[in-house]
Every structure is written in C-alpha cells, then in structure tokens.
C-alpha cells in the first residue's frame, strides 16, 4: 500500500508540473502533505533506520531527551511538522548558499564584470549563432569542474544571456547546454553522485579511470553534435549576419542610464580577481581539505566584499540588495519546497518502500547481466528518488545482489552512475529552479528538450563501458557490465 502511494505521489506531482496545473512551489508542498496524511491515516507510514538520513529523522522524532534512537517508528499526524522541518533543514545550507551566490553574481553583473566577455563573444560570433552555442557548451563544461550546478548556472547565464538576447537566440538552448554539460562533469570524484557511490560502496578515486572515457566522448557529443545541431537550426532561423565592427560594437553598447549608473568599469580587474579567486577556492577545496570552506561561507564573504568595494555608499548597497533579492527569494522558496517534499517522502517511509520495491521486481535470471540492470534502474531511480535515497537506500541491496552474481563494488559503483544522465532533469534537484528562473523557460518543455539529448549521453556512458571492458580481480573480464568468468 505504501509503495503504491509513493508511486502515485510521484506520478501526481509530475502530472501537475508537466500539464502546468500547479506551480512548482505549490506542487512541492501541497502534494506531499496530502499523500503523507493519507499514508498516516491508513496506518502505512512507518520509518526504519535504513539510511543515515532516516536515522537523523528518527532522532528528531524521538526528541532531545531520548536516551537512544529507536530503530523504527510508526508515523503519526503530530509528526508531520517535525518531518517537514527536517526536510527543510536538509536543504537549508543549499538555500543559504543560493541566496549569497545569486547576490554575488548579480552584483558582479550590475558592476559590469561580464560586459567584456559579452563583447568578446559577440565579436567572436560575428552574428553566427552556431559559434555562440558551441562556445556556451565549452564554457559550461569548464565552469562545471567544481561540480557545483549553482555556480555553473550563475556564471553561464550571467555571461551568455545578454548575447542570446541581443542575437534573438532561444534561451531554451542555453538551459539545455548548461544542464547537460554539468551532468557530465558532475561525475568527477568530488561531484555529489560519485562521492556518494564511493562512500556507500567503499571504492576509491580510481573510479575516475572507468568513468573518464564516457565523459570525454559525452563532452565531444555535446559540443560537436548537440551544440552544432542547435547552431545549424538557429542559423536557419536567424541567418548568419555579416556585421561590421561598428555594428558589432553597437550590439554591446549600453544606452540605459540606470544601467550605466550602477556599472563600475574601474573595478573590473578587482572584480575579476575576486570572482576567479572564489571559483578557484571552491575547486581547490575539493582537493585540499586544509583549505576547504563551505561554499555558503565563501559566497557570503565574497558578496560582502563585492558590495563594500563596488557600492561603498550605504544607500547604494541597500538598492542593490533590494533589486536582486527578489530573484533570490523566487529560487529559495523552491529549494525549501523541495525540502518539504523530501522530508515527507523520506519520513513517512515512502522512499524506503520504493527502494525495496526496485530490488524485488527484477528477476534473478538477469543476474549475469546485473550491471546492465543496475545501469538501467539507476536512470528512473535517480530521477524519481534523491541521490541520497538511491545511493544510501537502494544501492546497498543492489550491490549485495551483484556481489553474489560475480560483480565487485567498483562494477556496481560505475553502473549506478550511468543513470546520472537524467538525474539533473528531476524536479528534486534544487538548483534547476535557478536555471529555469534565469532563462525563463518552462520546466516541462525544458525536460522534454534536454531529455532527448540526455538519452544520447546515457547511451554513450553505457556503450563505452560495454565496449572497453575492465580489469576484474587482476584479470580481464568480458564487457564491463557482464559478470566476469
């Protein structure tokens, strides 16, 4: 019964989003509450300490005075508030980081940091949308090295949106290229999903050896096929304009007096150093624990410094915060809405129910191809369930079954990451709402457009691993996802 409720909740949520019957925020909050109440009233809501996240929830439900954390607990109506708050707590750091990240890059945009980039790109493109799209793909991949989707979104949108708007290009293409390039680069060992797979299956950083061929081919696919195809379509629609230097310069001229008033061209070098330093610290912190600082703290400090240097006048600072705060709030309420969904989805036991269901519906006769099974399951698994829910809830059971079929944990870890091709299209991913907000594209249409290219990435990931094979227990096995003999 609880499994059915969980699937119905996911279907209902996706239906109202895709058909535009509800906004993302109202769907994220109201639908989970309705299904959580149904689960409690029907007596189906039951939570066990199967994952680290569940143990945290059980500890919160038991209260501060509890001598020990219960191993399991029935959920009652009075627990709803605690579950919702625990979910919000789980995304609170992301929300704080988003707040200051948006304020920082908005301040940089106001000060004119990206104006020279826009000008260079316009002159490079020379009225050719194809060049702009291929440049977008390259920059999105490079910026995604730090593994953070929020940073990638803010930097790429800040730099490229003015170009797209000036040339009349589709913002949808920008949104698709940014998310899919980030999808590929997110498989680096310091990226969220790979780090989870490594921790839960106890494998090392050498997992990159097995992932890198597919990542390189996928990046080439995105730059030379997807961006190239989009570029040809935009060329056909808009044409390639032969523009003189004067006409190109006219595209970059800012005539609005209010915009000119907040520009700070004299501070460009300082702002560039501050931004590059911030990004470098974010990336370096992934490799050097001694200098690692939470991204929320880095963005908080950087935002304060940026405001003090560019707008030392108190009134000017207030105006910049007020002007950019609205965009931040629009995104952050969606992040907290996702927290409500995850708190109730996990807290009522629905996430566990789906995890257990996935491990029982797969026939044991497919054991020799368990790697392929796990790879295929990981696609809907990481789309409909959070990465935490899939890797900490589903993968231990799938990996244990794989071990019995002759697969080691490295096989299982890599197989589980194949479905990441689709994960960032999930409404459970917080930063996509920032991307959708900045590009002003519809979620349903964006999922359809990005999804068709994500299939190509998934096929490359899976095909590369099947073709290349891997070293198993000191000897070459047959193709990667087929059990070694």
TrEMBL record:
<dbReference type="InterPro" id="IPR004680">
    <property type="entry name" value="Cit_transptr-like_dom"/>
</dbReference>
<feature type="transmembrane region" description="Helical">
    <location>
        <begin position="412"/>
        <end position="435"/>
    </location>
</feature>
<feature type="transmembrane region" description="Helical">
    <location>
        <begin position="207"/>
        <end position="227"/>
    </location>
</feature>
<dbReference type="InterPro" id="IPR014738">
    <property type="entry name" value="Citrate_transporter"/>
</dbReference>
<feature type="transmembrane region" description="Helical">
    <location>
        <begin position="326"/>
        <end position="347"/>
    </location>
</feature>
<feature type="transmembrane region" description="Helical">
    <location>
        <begin position="268"/>
        <end position="290"/>
    </location>
</feature>
<feature type="transmembrane region" description="Helical">
    <location>
        <begin position="134"/>
        <end position="161"/>
    </location>
</feature>
<feature type="domain" description="Citrate transporter-like">
    <location>
        <begin position="13"/>
        <end position="419"/>
    </location>
</feature>
<keyword id="KW-0813">Transport</keyword>
<protein>
    <submittedName>
        <fullName>Citrate transporter</fullName>
    </submittedName>
</protein>
<keyword id="KW-0472">Membrane</keyword>
<feature type="transmembrane region" description="Helical">
    <location>
        <begin position="455"/>
        <end position="482"/>
    </location>
</feature>
<feature type="transmembrane region" description="Helical">
    <location>
        <begin position="93"/>
        <end position="114"/>
    </location>
</feature>
<dbReference type="Pfam" id="PF03600">
    <property type="entry name" value="CitMHS"/>
</dbReference>
<keyword id="KW-1133">Transmembrane helix</keyword>
<feature type="transmembrane region" description="Helical">
    <location>
        <begin position="173"/>
        <end position="192"/>
    </location>
</feature>
<feature type="transmembrane region" description="Helical">
    <location>
        <begin position="24"/>
        <end position="47"/>
    </location>
</feature>
<dbReference type="GO" id="GO:0015137">
    <property type="term" value="F:citrate transmembrane transporter activity"/>
</dbReference>
<dbReference type="GO" id="GO:0016020">
    <property type="term" value="C:membrane"/>
</dbReference>
<feature type="transmembrane region" description="Helical">
    <location>
        <begin position="367"/>
        <end position="391"/>
    </location>
</feature>
<keyword id="KW-0812">Transmembrane</keyword>
């Amino acid at each position: 019964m609880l499994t059915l409720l969980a699937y119905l909740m996911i279907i209902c949520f996706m239906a109202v989003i895709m058909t535009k019957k509800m906004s993302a925020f109202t769907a994220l909050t109201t639908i989970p509450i309705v299904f959580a109440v149904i689960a409690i009233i029907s007596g189906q809501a039951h939570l066990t300490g199967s994952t680290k996240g569940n143990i945290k929830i059980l500890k919160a439900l038991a209260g501060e005075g509890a001598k020990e954390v219960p191993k399991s607990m029935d959920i009652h109506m009075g627990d709803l508030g605690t579950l919702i708050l625990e979910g919000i707590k789980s995304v609170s750091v992301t929300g704080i980081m988003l707040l200051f990240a948006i304020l920082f890059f908005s301040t940089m945009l106001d000060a004119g940091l990206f104006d020279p980039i826009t000008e260079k790109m316009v002159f490079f493109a020379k009225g050719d949308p194809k060049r702009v799209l291929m440049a977008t793909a390259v920059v999105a991949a490079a910026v995604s090295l730090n593994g953070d989707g929020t940073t990638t979104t803010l930097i790429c949108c800040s730099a490229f949106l003015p170009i797209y708007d000036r040339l009349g290009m589709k913002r949808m293409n920008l949104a698709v290229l940014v998310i899919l390039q980030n999808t590929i680069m997110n498989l680096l060992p310091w990226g969220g999903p790979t780090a989870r797979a490594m921790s839960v299956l106890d494998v090392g950083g050498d997992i990159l050896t097995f992932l890198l061929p597919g990542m390189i081919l996928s990046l080439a696919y995105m730059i030379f096929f997807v961006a190239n195809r989009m570029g040809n379509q935009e060329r056909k629609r808009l044409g390639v304009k032969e523009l003189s230097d004067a006409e190109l310069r006219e595209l970059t001229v800012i005539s609005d007096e209010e915009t000119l008033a907040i520009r700070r061209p004299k501070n460009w070098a300082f702002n560039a150093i501050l931004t590059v330093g911030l990004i470098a610290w974010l990336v370096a912190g992934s490799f050097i624990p001694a200098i690692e600082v939470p991204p929320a703290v880095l963005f908080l400090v950087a935002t304060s410094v940026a405001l003090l240097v560019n707008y030392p006048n108190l009134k000017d600072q207030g105006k910049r915060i007020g002007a950019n705060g609205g965009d931040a709030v629009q995104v952050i309420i969606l992040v907290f809405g996702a927290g409500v969904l995850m708190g109730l989805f996990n807290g009522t036991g629905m996430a566990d129910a789906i995890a257990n269901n996935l491990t029982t519906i797969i026939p044991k006769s497919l054991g020799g191809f368990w790697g392929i099974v796990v790879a295929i399951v990981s696609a809907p698994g990481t789309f409909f369930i959070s990465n935490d829910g899939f890797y900490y809830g589903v993968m231990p059971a799938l990996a244990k079954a794989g071990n019995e079929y002759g697969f080691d944990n490295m096989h299982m870890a890599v197989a589980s990451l194949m479905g990441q091709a689709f994960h960032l299209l999930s409404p459970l991913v917080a930063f996509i709402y920032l991307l959708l907000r900045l590009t002003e594209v519809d979620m349903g249409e964006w999922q359809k457009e990005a999804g068709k290219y994500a299939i190509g990435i998934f096929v490359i990931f899976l095909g590369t691993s099947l073709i290349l094979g891997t070293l198993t227990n000191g000897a070459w096995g047959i193709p990667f996802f087929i059990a070694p003999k």
